[in-house]
Amino acid sequence: MQIVILLALLFVIGGLTWYLVTIYNGLIELKNDIDKAWANIDVMLKQRHDELTNLVAVCKGYMEFERDTFERIAQARSQYDRAVTISQKAQADQSMTQATRGLLAVAENYPELKASNNFLQLQGRITELESQIADRREFYNDSVNTYNVRIQQAPDMIVAGWMHLQPRQMFKVEDADKANVPMVFSTGAH
Q1: How many domains does the chain have?
Q2: Which end of the chain is more exposed for a tag (fewer CB within 10 A), N or C?
């Protein structure tokens, strides 16, 4: 009789151990998915950063009086280069997005620039990168949401507590990015 009780106890302990290990492994997988998702965003941001450098070089030849626009881009690039944490990089990304929109809006005033093949190719590449970044942000937010829900639900929250896991921040759109972008079209040549 004692052997049956001992076997039943070992079975319960083994099952509980297996269950806790499964939860642990699932949480580790989610944590790594978030890190991978952010790394993918970071790669795309770097590509956009590089393409924007090329776009600025093309635009400078046409835009003689747009020093403020170029300074905002330089500041945004510098902010991105100094960013270390996900939060800092996300903020730098917002600054770069605003600076890029400003540059493209100002470019509307330069018909010769808009007709340049280099400008059109770079503008198309940046637009493509923006779309890919948006897709990766969505995947990142899905991963963060799943992770945050799991670490707050029983019994996962017990294992998450042992692992000292904390909720992660989702990638959010700034209010300025939700506003309509004013389009300014020039009627005269510069």
Answers
A1: 1
A2: N
